[in-house]
Design a protein that fits this description.
This protein is an alpha/beta fold. The protein is about 40% helix and about 15% strand.
């Protein structure tokens, strides 16, 4: 059984430290918004949905100091990771609630909103999984990249949620997972997570994906997303674009699984998505220990952008979006606004 990514106990937020996986299951005790911000920045918690939810609870922690403290915390948390739009979506929800809540009930009311965001994430992952499972054949082998599973959300997952739902529907699913350099989220997290759930999963180096696809054994590539532009261009963990190009060349469907909250309608295309660049040390550090020389020049983007023309379908909790993505994304967002307006 997988450990929870985060949980609340005795007025503290406990975050699973994913830097320690798969060797140890450790939790960070967060008593302040700053603790949560550092956990996000250092990748103790990662995955777009999980980052947003952790940030929401960070605002709750700060609200014990009043509205001004909560707003300051929201600003601090918003500076932690620039690419994952779920972070800003969750913080915006918390800030909007602050405008209507009374000071004397602020902590209680913000806690209720954070709990709602948590529950919404799990429900949308289940719905996304059911929608995506229908795209997979009865017996299939899937290739995935990075970690878009239960460890990147609060349960079930996005890309891995589709795989879980397919198995729950009685389908025979085998998985290949890229290691995901330079931080090895695929090796450390995805393979471990799927093994905990009894999946047939095989690890491969990122550079081996082309050879694997050429062999004709992969039926679909499924990945998550950190931000989706209005035209369907998608930012995800670095290496995703390469997989999309390879999948296109080999005639393999390439699916993106992400909640509607990942869509950023304010950005016309992927050219406008801010791409986080991380410290050189992540590349200079050798997997077996030791470091490369400090004088090596390093380019270390955390994400890349896959153009919508390379994406076969976008799987959301509102259903499967098909190209052309501009109209499909607009219709999806309009439907979501309508449903929220009648809740």
């Amino acid at each position: 059984m997988l450990p929870p990514v985060l949980y609340w106990n005795n007025d503290q937020l406990y975050i699973l430290d994913q830097r320690a996986l798969p060797g140890e299951v450790l939790y960070l005790e967060c008593s302040s918004a700053e603790d949560v911000a550092v956990a996000i920045e250092t990748l103790a918690v990662r995955g777009a949905p999980a980052i947003g939810i952790a940030a929401a609870y960070g605002v709750v922690l700060a609200s014990r100091g009043g509205r001004k403290s909560a707003l300051a915390a929201s600003m601090r948390l918003g500076r932690t990771r620039p690419t994952a739009v779920n972070l800003f979506w969750a913080l915006r929800r918390m800030e909007e609630k602050m405008e209507s809540f009374l000071d004397r009930t602020l902590y209680k009311d913000l806690m209720k909103e954070a709990n709602t965001i948590y529950a919404d994430d799990l429900a949308c992952n289940m719905a996304m999984g059911r929608a995506g499972a229908a795209l997979l054949p009865e017996k299939c082998t899937v290739l995935t990249h990075c970690n878009a599973g239960a460890l990147a959300t609060v349960g079930h997952g996005t890309a891995l949620g589709v795989i879980r739902s397919a198995r729950e529907a009685g389908k025979d699913v085998k998985v290949f997972a890229c290691e995901t350099r330079p931080l090895l989220q695929g090796a450390r997290l995805t393979v471990w997570e799927l093994m905990q759930d009894g999946f047939d999963v095989t690890l491969l180096c990122d550079s081996m994906a082309g050879s694997l696809l050429k062999k004709g054994v992969i039926d679909a590539v499924i990945v998550g997303a950190d931000r989706i532009a209005a035209n369907g261009d998608t930012a995800n963990k670095i290496g995703t674009y390469s997989l999309a190009v390879l999948a296109k060349h080999h005639g393999v469907p390439f699916y993106v699984a992400a909640p509607v909250s990942t869509i950023d309608p304010a950005l016309p295309s992927g050219d406008d998505i801010p791409i986080e660049e991380r410290r050189p040390e992540e590349i200079l550090r050798l997997p077996g220990g030791g470091m490369l020389p400090d004088e090596y020049a390093v380019w270390n983007p955390a994400f890349d952008v896959t153009e919508s023309g390379l994406i076969t379908a976008i799987i959301t909790e509102m259903g499967v979006l098909q190209p052309p993505y501009g109209p499909a994304v607009s219709a999806c967002l309009e439907r979501r606004r309508f449903e929220w307006s009648i809740v």
